[in-house]
Structures are given as structure tokens and as C-alpha cells.
Amino acid sequence: MEGKQNPVYLVTGGSGYIGSHLIHELESKNIEAISFDSNINLRKFSGFKSIRHVRGDINDTKFLRDTIMAYRVEGVFHLAALKSVTESLRNPIKYDLVNVGGTASVLEACKDGGVKNLVFSSSAAVYAPNLGTNPINEDHELASINPYGDSKISGEKMIKDFWLEGNGSSICLRLFNVGGSKNSILYDSKGENVMPKLARSFLNGTRFDVYGSDLATPDGTCVRDYVHIDDVTSAFLKSMSLLEVNFGTMHGVFNVCSEIGVSVNQIITEMRDYSGLDIEVNYSEHREGDQVVVIGGNQKITSAMNWIPSKNISQIIQETWDHSQL
Ligand SMILES: NC(=O)c1ccc[n+]([C@@H]2O[C@H](COP(=O)([O-])OP(=O)(O)OC[C@H]3O[C@@H](n4cnc5c(N)ncnc54)[C@H](O)[C@@H]3O)[C@@H](O)[C@H]2O)c1
Question: How close is the Cα of 188 to the center of ligand 1, in Å?
């Protein structure tokens, strides 16, 4: 990335939570980026100087290819997707259309537009339930328990095919639970993950629902592996650099995670302590499609890219609280 003369990158899903942080990071390094998103949230870009926003649907292959060619895009970060496990259980076809069909369209547009390097935002949801095998490494069985995870497995297969067909290099990053925020503008205020939902409950004084309290974990609640957004954007940039070094010749799959498990109850306690506020917590049945413990192994990405998590769960919780209030 650093060595090339004025490379231009396209970020699908560039107005989303992770995409807007990635664009912020690219801009801070004076790297030119095009955001391609169907639902541009201009508020997220109010502080950016040189970012171009293209409003478009990733399923519109022709428009995407024309955009790639018009801006002479050299690398694509493909993040655009629907990401709710619960919604995917209710409406799996919608997830097939956007996450599977949309990824096929992005790959076609890259092929036609001559893009050789592609980084895909995949998820820990691709893994089969771990049944006590922690941490989960990249060679763990792929067998999702919900349509969202299925759509990421299909996406990963296509990203590998892009390389197998000789079109270029590709990397799939399996993100675990992403949290934290650079500022209140980029904060994921409408997020449906535990962290933003909990912050909203503290702010509004509303009851917080915890699904499952007698699970096989130390305090009975679900355990997840949280990784800071800055570490996630750093993994995307390092991946693109690795692809550029191995021009056209590599395909890789990497976990992006902290290797540390944190329970829902731990997060509630820490946000309660930090905010000085209290909320009512309601414990109900464990949800279908929800894994009990998900902790990843990060040795592979550490060895390949010298990537290590730089921020911990306390920083994620504190940033969530600080930025949720403005
Ligand atoms: N946030 C997490 O913890 C997490 C964890 C694992 C994987 N991921 C993956 O990372 C990526 C980004 O996640 P996020 O948290 O930023 O989600 P997000 O919902 O904030 O952003 C997704 C963006 O994609 C855009 N989009 C959706 N459908 C589109 C379409 N058809 N055409 C163009 N744009 C479209 C949306 O408008 C949105 O801006 C997703 O692929 C998600 O599955 C996220």
C-alpha cells in the first residue's frame, strides 16, 4: 500500500460502521478511497475531505464496474452486506440476494474492471459450534447455524474462486465481535450488537434482555471474543498490503479476534461501573441460531501480517459509552 503511486481503493459498504472507520483510516494515511454504498449516511462523512461517495447497489454489476473503471480502482474492500443473524432466520432469501448474489456481482465487476486485489469481510459465524474447542482456528469445520453465516460461507467460496480462476489475489477476514469507535460521528448508534444495544438501554433507562443465563459458561451467559475497530481496520490495510506484495498469487483466510472470551454479564457490570448508571436486566431463553461460546485464535494473522490486537475490552466498553451519548 505504502509503496505504490496513488493507488485508489473502493470500499463497498463504506458508509457502514466498519466501512466508515476504514475510510477514515485510509484518508488519515492520504490514500484515495471511493465509498460504494446503497444507503449513504452523509453524517458519517462530515469530517472527511477527499472521500468520494457513490450511491449504488452492489447487485448492479454494470454500475459497479463502471465506477471501478472510472476511478481506476486497484483494490476492493468488500464489506457491504446485511448482518443480522435474527433477521436472516426470518428472511434467508434477502440474505442470499445481498450477501451471496451481491458478492458474485462484486467479483464480476472486479474481473471486468481489472481489479486484482480483493479483501472480503467475513465472519466468525461461518464456524460450526465449537463444543468446547477454544480458541477456534481457521481450519475449524465450516458449518454455520444460521442463514447469515451460510451466506458468508458462500461468499468465501466465491472469493476463493476469484483467485482459483486466475483473476487475482484475495483474502477473507473472519471478524469476531467488533466494538469501539473513533468518535461519536462514526459510532454505530443503531447497531443491534450487544454493545450498542446495552448503551442504549443505559441511556434510555430501558430493560436489557439477556438470552440465556444457565449456559455452560462461568457465569451462565454467552461468551464472545471482542476486537477493537482500530485493530479491524488495521487488519484490512495489512491484508491489502499483503495482497499487493503477492500480486495475483495468493489466497488467504484469517481470523481477526483477541483470543479473549468476555461474557454478557461481564459487559453489563463494566458498563454499569463506568457509566455510574443502572438498568433492569431480564434473563430469558437462549436464542435459536446463537452460539454459546465463540473465541477465536489469532496466531495465523499474527504470523502472516504481524497483526496483534492493540486495544482491550475495557477500551471498547468505555468508547461505546463515551460516544453513544453525543
Ligand atoms: N460489526 C461486526 O461485529 C461484524 C462482525 C463480523 C463480520 N462483519 C461484516 O463486516 C461487514 C461490515 O459490517 P458493519 O458492522 O459495518 O455493517 P453495517 O450494517 O454498519 O454496514 C454495512 C453497509 O453495507 C451497505 N449495504 C447493504 N446492502 C448493500 C447493497 N446491496 N449495496 C450496497 N451497499 C449495501 C449498508 O448500507 C451499510 O452501510 C459486513 O459484511 C458484516 O457482515 C461485521
Answer: 11
